[in-house]
Amino acid sequence: MPKLITVFLIAILPHWSLFGKVEAGGETTLQNIGSRQKISLDGLWQAIIDPLENGLYNHSLQERTNGYFKNQKMESPRDLIEYDFDNSYQLNVPGDWNTQMEKLYLYEGTIWYKRSFKYRTGDKKKVLLYFEGVNYRCKVYLNGEYLGDHVGGFTPFQFDVSGKLKEDNFLILKVDNTRRRDGVPTVNFDWWNYGGITRSAWLVELPGTYIHDYSLRLKKGSKNIIEGMVALKGNTPPGQEVEVRIDELNQAVSLRSGKDGFAYFEIAADISYWSPGNPKLYQVAISTGEDSISDHVGFKTIETRGSQVYLNDAPVFLRGISIHEEAPFGAGRVTSKEQCRTLLRWAKELGCNYIRLAHYPHNEFMVREAERLGLLIWSEIPVYWTISYENPGTYENAESQLLAMIHRDKNRVGIGLWSVANETPMTADRLKFLKKLIRTARTTDDSRLITAALNSQRGGNGEIVIDDPLGEYIDVIGINTYCGWYGKRPAQCRDIVWKNTYDKPMIVSEMGAGALQGLHGGKDERWTEEYQAEVYRCNLDMIKKIDFLGGLSPWILMDFRSPRRNLGRIQNHFNRKGLVSENGIKKEAFYVLKDFYKELEDAGKQKKMEKENYPKTGG
Ligand code: GCU
């Protein structure tokens, strides 16, 4: 019988902000959608392609009151209605539209999605309409009523539709993937602008009082105390009973919620820490009155000591690879668990213990599956290249995406690093923008490392010095360096000496070269597999000499679409830096990196063995 520990309400200290007290502007989304009672809205939706946004604006660009979101039908032969969802296109949800219809391959603009569904209106449940991701911005309408907007293509959002559902309903979204100068990302980025309801949509049914959010983590500075919170919503008079159980630890706590619906607890237990070598997860059951959820949660510490990354008090070297959310076999944006498993299997075959999920938050299953497989995760928001750093609205957008990413994945022990940026220009506006974003990340979650991928640094006479001023504010310095591809010949990479202004770990967050899988030739012939493999060999020789290197995540696991890649015969709208082709065929460089990681892992094991087998001598 688990030990019952009486729990006391802990004074709400500022550092509790991780626990959902920081609500980014609006509502935070429901935690752990996978564990909820829900109705899927996936499947075929009807679609109207609307490049002039005619479904929302009239010819004078005034918003219509009777736009496409009304789903009007001709009631008499004299009626003039110039749209009809029922006699229009169809698109699969989840899925990008670009790879579903040839005419939409390069389409950027608005597409109206509509689906009808029946709902048994008898229950008095709370019902949320929950989207896991829609790229890039959307307006949502239920039964002709405007519910709201969402901006940002890679984080979940929801609307409370309790009391708005009928026996027969129609749900309409105006989805717009137009790139905007003030967007996050902005108008230029090196991946395909996959538009649409690219992740699953749900109707989530909840009881009157429900578990909205929760968090469990190792208490800062402690090795065996789990601190946690549960946030109730709906009808939440103070003193609601909440139980948290971790049966494997033989622990159960009974809590009483405060007047704000929050309850906090601490559990002392002998914990097996999560690590790539021991991806230990505990089943957690949380229940209150009418609601209960279960999750799998792990515990770790991650920190830096000088230029070394430490995981659970032991130095770790991050053997990684970068991954875009691009589906294998050319299927566009990832939409299935199987596609996630394929990508992660390739990463494991490489010998990775770490992955960089670039350049935006990936779907929740990818994160959960990576941690289950023992892959430490670098998770990132698309503050990429030349966004509008001087624009307050752009900052709000970036911060909102950061908070939504942290909120959704705060219980994912596999996440070790939050990245706030990729290859951003060294301007005063950018530094001010990112310092503020980093402050927000730290106050929201002080249990993970903060990082950013920086441009290649200032070089000269064979030296490269890391001196980007942003380095002062992040914990781990990501460096994207393309010696042998965007500069210098491969052999020259071996002679480069790196210097670090900061006593912090550097991660080579990107390195690599392009190759068309199956194209063979001399190792000095660009685009051949031999050339890519040679660039890897030379760069790996270079990085072996960097004594402040904490890890690497070469660019990139698999070839991915980008409209910036127009070299016919070779690229055909694919960035060819993948170690695997989009058809799942490994290139020569895959094995160069795999051998390097094997060598590292064996050396690591050797060092550990020596340490264990040869007891410390005195002094
Ligand atoms: C940059 C950028 C990537 C891009 C890569 C490339 O470093 O971060 O998003 O795809 O270089 O040029 O292939």
Task: Tell me the layout of helices and strands.
Elements: E1 3-6, E2 38-40, E3 43-49, E4 89-93, E5 110-118, E6 126-131, E7 137-142, E8 145-151, E9 157-160, E10 168-176, E11 201-206, E12 209-218, E13 225-234, E14 241-246, E15 251-256, E16 262-268, E17 282-288, E18 291-297, E19 302-305, E20 308-311, E21 314-316, E22 318-323, H1 337-350, E23 354-357, H2 364-372, E24 376-380, H3 392-409, E25 415-422, H4 428-444, E26 449-454, E27 458-460, E28 463-466, E29 476-480, H5 490-493, E30 497-500, E31 506-510, H6 529-543, E32 549-552, E33 560-561, E34 574-575, H7 588-613
Parallel strand pairs: 1-15, 22-23, 22-32, 23-24, 24-25, 25-26, 26-29, 28-30, 29-31, 31-32
Antiparallel strand pairs: 2-11, 3-4, 3-5, 5-10, 6-9, 6-11, 7-8, 7-10, 12-13, 13-16, 14-15, 14-17, 17-18, 19-20, 20-21, 27-28, 33-34
Helix pairs in contact: 1-2, 3-4, 6-7
The structure holds alpha-D-glucopyranuronic acid (GCU).
Alpha-D-glucopyranuronic acid is lined by residues 190, 359, 422-423, 480, 510, 555, 575, 577.
Q: What report would you give on this structure?
A:
The chain contains seven helices and 34 strands. With about 625 residues, it is of the alpha/beta class. The protein has three domains: about 5-20 and about 210-300, Immunoglobulins (Immunoglobulin-like); about 45-95 and about 95-200, Galactose-binding domain-like (Jelly Rolls, Sandwich), CATH 2.60.120; about 315-615, Glycosidases (TIM Barrel), CATH 3.20.20.80. The strands form eight sheets. The chain has an eight-stranded parallel beta barrel with strand order 22-23-24-25-26-29-31-32. Strands 4-3-5-10-7-8 form a six-stranded antiparallel beta sheet, with no helix packed on it. A five-stranded mixed beta sheet has the order 1-15-14-17-18, with no helix packed on it. Helix 3 (about 390-410) links the parallel strand 24 and strand 25 (about 415-420). The chain is globular, with a radius of gyration of 25 Å. The two termini are about 50 Å apart. Residues about 1-20 and about 20-25 have low confidence and may be disordered. Bound molecules: alpha-D-glucopyranuronic acid. Alpha-D-glucopyranuronic acid binds near residues 190, 359 and 422.
